[in-house]
Amino acid sequence: MRSAQHRDYLRLPPRPCQWLFYQLPRTDNCPELTTVHLPSSIKGLGSECFSGCSKLSSIDISNVEYFDEATFSGTSSLTQVTLNATIDEIPVECFLNSGLTSITLPDSVEEIGDRAFRG
């Protein structure tokens, strides 16, 4: 599987967001999370990392090189993101039911998963 291959390469824990959320003040399913400042060392975001964070409106993911499935599903307040110029895949349901109104895909994107932008 593609994401497992990326995890090995980047030496991230199996669920990098589980690790990431230990570093952030949050409650279960992050209902009150509005802004995230990721350290530049975070290169990948795991499956459902910010899923259900309906108030998340600001996150800089310009250093993130890969996402797993449903990373931003249910982020209804997230209207804009800037993708890393080297991203090659937008996984299944990555932005499902997000609030995105527009997105610029870099030329490097080779694959867009099912329902990546539905909703």
Automatic annotation (TrEMBL):
Domain of life (superkingdom): Bacteria
Pfam families membership: LRR_5
SUPFAM superfamilies, A to Z: L domain-like
N-terminal signal peptide: none
Gene3D superfamilies reported for this sequence: Ribonuclease Inhibitor (3.80.10.10)
PANTHER family: IG-LIKE DOMAIN-CONTAINING PROTEIN, SURFACE ANTIGEN
Protein name per its UniProtKB record: Leucine-rich repeat domain-containing protein
Taxonomic lineage from the root: Bacteria, Pseudomonadati, Verrucomicrobiota, Verrucomicrobiia, Verrucomicrobiales
